[in-house]
Amino acid sequence: MIDTHAHLDFAEFDPDRDTLVQQMLEQGISNAIIPGVAPALWQRQLAIARQYGFYYALGIHPWYCPLKNDVDISELKLLINSRRQDHALVAIGECGLDKLRQDTWPFQQAWLEAQLQLADELGLPVILHCVRAHEELLALLSRHSPSRRGVIHGFYGAPELAARYFRLGYRLGIGGLLLNEDAKKLHLTVQHLPLDAFILETDSPAMAPKSAIDRRNTPLLIAQIVAKMANLQKKSSVLISERLSENAAQLFEL
């Protein structure tokens, strides 16, 4: 199995990263994708990805986009082009839209559009963050989808919304929110959409389920997510893990 979205470069994992990676391997989690979030953090992210053999993406998260409409992603483009022979680089992102961040909201769409264009130019999929901005994101993707499409990370919406993304060619990243008993819309989404629509993720260290004792999320949650999906889909956990691993491998060309 692979955790397709885990910020294992974040400081929350500094005390026990070696131990966690060993535990992941023992539980059959063979790898993870570390998304990029901001230029100031890219070099640390790359160093940790290289140290542990993780996959990674590079991008500018909507929380961290500069407060200007004069978009310049030359630094991102230069870094990616310098690493084009690195097979661990699998996507552009994490990028997207987030209405909860009112300070950056006026500038987010311009920075996202530039990254979507870059993904199309480079033939890479995108890892997309979206909070309370699905209509805006769907409209943008209808006009500017990269050829390789990508994933709507941390999806928690209803089947109708999920189907709209899936029809555009995007997969949905399913994580720890699925384990919340009150996540009724997400449960229905997993029940009613085909397995081809989904990939597994945790968004570690964030998005721990409400039942978690430790508020720091980790990729070790993957087995519980698989079990919950198996229950909702009335299929075996083995089938779920195999199919969703295949989905991730196909999307990111792993």
From TrEMBL:
It holds the Pfam family TatD_DNase. The keyword Protease does not apply. The keyword Ion transport does not apply. PROSITE patterns: TATD_1. Coiled coil: none annotated. One of its GO terms (molecular function) is hydrolase activity. InterPro entries: DNase_TatD-rel_CS, Metal_Hydrolase, TatD-like. Keywords: Hydrolase. PANTHER family: D-AMINOACYL-TRNA DEACYLASE, HYDROLASE. Belongs to the metallo-dependent hydrolases superfamily. TatD-type hydrolase family. This is TatD family hydrolase.
